[in-house]
């Protein structure tokens, strides 16, 4: 097994992990399988690219543009919450209806990006950095950056879920929304914070993808399957399981390249998801479904 492929898989798993955590949070708390989640990653990546390539001082710094891109992704998610999801909860829409709406939202976002930015692949304007040689393994500098950002984001999420009032409220709503209401938890406030946290992680994940690869309008479509596979593998509704599942999926995809080719590595995520549903539908770790 090529160690270089494992390193690449860890970097890919870091990107999938942030998107998968956001996806599993929205399901665990809102009971929403959001197929537009991958396109939220695209939104965050393209906002950062637009600012990074602009002539505006400070904003064209890659780290500043990424921060602004995260806020932009949160804004899009909150707008969708106000216009779509809140109304759907009010009328008690079925799970099938929610899935269809999320697919429509994904198509709307994807084609909007195509309209404004075109269909060409984009590349961030990044300082050139040499690869780091670690025991004979060449590790790209930005792969290390991606892993570091993922570790910081995951640690921050863990602290928020375990040690803050809103984190405890989110866990209570995920366990039993009706009981949470009875105990005085403001469920609508929890919903807003869920979108803010999920969109922040997802936007960052899309930008991390831009650090190591080209960003494309359809990148969300190619990332949504590994994200769903990671969520299923780790246990639907379990953020820690989603993280573990993401790294398994990322490494499995990259290690499979010599066997199936890069054009078929997405099939590995699909195969792992199907096998999980067949033999261990609860996932590796217990989830909310």
Write a brief structural summary.
It is found in: Cell membrane. This protein has helices spanning 3-30, 37-52, 62-90, 95-117, 141-163, 165-175, 177-182, 187-212, 219-234, 239-255, 257-260, 265-279; strands at residues 132-134, 137-139.
Beta-strand residue fraction: under 5%
Q: Which regions have little confidence, pLDDT < 50, spanning 5+ residues? A: none
Listing every helix as H and every strand as E from the N terminus to the C terminus, the arrangement reads: HHHHEEHHHHHHHH
Q: Helix tally?
A: 12
Biggest sheet record = 2 strands, antiparallel
How many structural domains does the protein architecture include?
1
State the total count of DSSP E strands. Answer: 2
Radius of gyration: 19 Å
Q: What is the 3D shape?
A: globular
Query: How much helicity do the residues have?
Result: over 70%
Structural class of the helix and strand makeup? mainly alpha
Q: What is the average of the pLDDT values? A: 89
Adjacency order of strands in the biggest sheet: 1-2
* First-residue to last-residue Cα separation: 35 Å
How does this structure look, described?
This protein is an all-alpha fold and 289 residues long. The chain has one domain (3-216). Helix content is 74%, strand content 2%. The protein has 12 helices and 2 strands. Strands 1-2 form a two-stranded antiparallel sheet. The radius of gyration is 19 Å and the shape is globular.
């Amino acid at each position: 097994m090529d160690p270089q492929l494992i390193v690449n898989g860890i970097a890919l798993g870091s990107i999938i992990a942030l998107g998968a955590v956001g996806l599993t949070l929205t399901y665990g708390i809102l009971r929403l399988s959001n197929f537009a989640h991958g396109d939220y990653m695209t939104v965050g990546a393209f906002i950062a690219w637009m600012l990074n390539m602009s002539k505006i001082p400070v904003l064209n710094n890659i780290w500043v543009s990424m921060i602004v891109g995260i806020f932009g992704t949160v804004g899009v998610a909150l707008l969708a919450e106000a216009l779509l999801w809140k109304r759907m909860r009010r009328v008690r829409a079925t799970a099938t209806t929610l899935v269809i709406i999320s697919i429509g939202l994904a198509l709307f976002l994807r084609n909007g990006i195509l309209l404004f930015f075109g269909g060409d692949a984009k590349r961030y304007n990044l300082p050139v950095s040499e690869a780091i040689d670690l025991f004979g393994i060449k590790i790209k500098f930005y792969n290390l950056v991606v892993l570091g950002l993922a570790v910081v984001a995951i640690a921050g999420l863990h602290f928020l879920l375990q040690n803050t009032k809103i984190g405890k409220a989110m866990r209570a709503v995920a366990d039993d929304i009706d009981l949470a209401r009875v105990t005085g938890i403001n469920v609508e406030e929890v919903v807003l914070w869920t979108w803010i946290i999920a969109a922040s992680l997802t936007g960052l994940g899309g930008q991390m993808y831009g650090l190591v690869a080209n960003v494309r309008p359809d990148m969300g479509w190619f990332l949504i399957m590994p994200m769903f596979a990671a969520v299923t593998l780790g246990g639907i509704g379990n953020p820690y399981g989603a993280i573990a599942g993401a790294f398994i999926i990322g490494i499995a995809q990259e290690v499979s390249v010599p066997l199936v080719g890069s054009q078929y590595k997405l099939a590995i995520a699909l195969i792992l998801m199907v096998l999980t549903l067949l033999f261990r539908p609860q996932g590796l770790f217990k989830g909310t479904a």
